[in-house]
Amino acid sequence: MKLEDIGFYTLSNNRVKQTCLHSPMWRTEILLTDKCNFKCPYCRGVKEELRGDMPIEKVKYVIDIWSKTGLKNIRFSGGEPTLYKGLIEVVKYAKIKGVERIAISTNGSASINLYKKLIEAGVNDISVSLDACCSTFGEKMCGGIKGMWKNVVNNIKELSKLTYVTLGMVFTEETANTVKEVIIFGDSLGVADIRIISAAQSNIMLKQLNEIPKQILSRHPILKYRVDNFTKSKNVRGLSSDDYHKCALVIDDSAIAGNYHFPCIIYLREGGKHIGEIGPDMRRERYEWFKNHNVQYDKICIKNCLDVCVAYNHMYWYYNEGAGLKERLCYDNDFCVLSKTGLIETLKNNDTLYNGVFLDFNGIKELNEKLGYDKTNDTLKDVFTSYKFRRSDIVARYFSGDEFIILAKHNIIELLDRFEKHCFSKNMNFKYKILYDIVTVQDIDKSINVR
Ligand SMILES: C[S@@+](CC[C@H](N)C(=O)[O-])C[C@H]1O[C@@H](n2cnc3c(N)ncnc32)[C@H](O)[C@@H]1O
Ligand code: SF4
Ligand code: SF4
């Protein structure tokens, strides 16, 4: 299954291309209750004003509003949603309203019969929290309820045979050294995928991710996504200063608790301010929030935003606001000089999207005449290699005498500006002309063949 088919996952190119005030509301996550029978050490509950059970009519009202704009995915969470009396009823309601993916986040403690009834009612995605692989520690994570950890593990095994089950693993400083063990154990239960995350309050790098066996990664696309990011030094949480300053995700994704709608589930859990009250104006209010809120100034987003959300917002920038110099994602930290073939191979073998520009330096012809081809070539190479790329510049590649491609994460204009200044300082007094703004293998071929 591809990531974008799963729902992490709905965050796809196709979705982001449509995102606007009138696009479908793709996902909503509703906190049905704050009640819980566990006491996970890292869990901080919700703000006072969000406590209690959400009235069932209100849950249905939210489903009504969002399903008018084509709601495709819903997640019921909490607290522990299986303790919410109307859970089966709201699941059925979502199904009647045409919601395609109905998910619950649970601690796995309910009876297998309840889970089976939920599946019958329409649940087709169950996320179970599991942060331990031995019963002693497991019982502690389950709030000390005797025999509960075993019950959770049995439920996971049984449910994995019936529907799409993922494990949610949260690690803290205390448990960071168990990451590998817990993942191997989780994999052995037959689940479809594993989501790992560091507890928000610790936000540690999960170093053991480097050691996860390849066969396990090949079975679990979400886990692989996280591990791949980790190996590229990209943490699961947090914005870097290069990341897009707006959050398009709020336009067609939402989190609901108490009387309010929030930018996203992370924002809600971190105690951030709601966008507004539940009601017919929610969509417009979300769009306004998107337009007016700079997430680079928001402490919650800076510290907690998740890798997928960051990537999605980058994609939005690329498709909607690139202003000609469109942005694509690139996590390659190396600076290198490649041949055309090398460059094409790199792009082909890398499913990362790049943003970049082809440069045609007007002055090269004169330089060639003055210095000769080889000397010009060497000089250009020298300019490139001596130019100090910041992390945000990511990568620049040069592939022929007067044809250049610069690949970068974003802010190409600034990059070019600085590059030009650098060229001046090297007495390379030329102007560039941008030939292409989208970098794909085909573009490269075209640029070589056309001229
Ligand atoms: C709050 S729980 C609610 C649903 C259900 N009770 C459960 O545990 O899956 C939703 C998710 O948030 C995660 N979570 C709770 N506290 C967290 C924290 N401090 N940092 C990161 N994730 C956290 C849980 O592990 C779980 O995957
Ligand atoms: S089971 Fe879920 S809601 Fe309950 S304490 Fe653990 S993380 Fe929090
Ligand atoms: S945490 Fe990320 S997804 Fe949530 S509002 Fe901030 S930028 Fe958007």
**Class by helix and strand content?**
alpha/beta
Task: Give the second-level CATH assignment, the architecture of the largest domain.
Answer: Alpha-Beta Barrel
Small-molecule components bound: S-adenosylmethionine, iron/sulfur cluster
Number of beta-strand segments: 13
What gyration radius follows from the Cα positions, in whole Å?
Answer: 25 Å
Q: Which percent bin holds the helix content?
A: 40-55%
Q: Tell me what portion of residues adopts beta-strand conformation.
A: 5-15%
Count of domain modules: 2
Description:
It is a single chain. The strands form two sheets. Strands 6-5-4-3-2-1-7-8-9 form a nine-stranded mixed beta sheet. It is built from 20 helices and 13 strands. The longest helix has 15 residues, at about 150-160. The chain has about 450 residues and is an alpha/beta fold. α3 (about 55-70) packs parallel to α4 (about 85-95) and α5 packs parallel to α7. It has helices at about 5, 15-20, 55-70, 85-95, 110-120, 135-140, 150-160, 180-185, 215-220, 220-230, 250, 265-270, 280-290, 300-305, 305-320, 340-350, 365-370, 375-385, 410-425, 440-450, and strands at about 25-30, 75, 100-105, 125-130, 165-170, 195-200, 255, 260, 275, 355-360, 395-400, 405-410, 430-435. The radius of gyration is 25 Å and the shape is globular. The protein folds into two domains: about 5-315, Aldolase class I (TIM Barrel, Alpha-Beta Barrel); about 325-450, Alpha-Beta Plaits (2-Layer Sandwich). Residues about 320-345, about 350-355, about 390-400 and about 435-450 have low confidence and may be disordered. The site of S-adenosylmethionine has 17 residues, from β3 and β5. One iron/sulfur cluster binds next to loops.
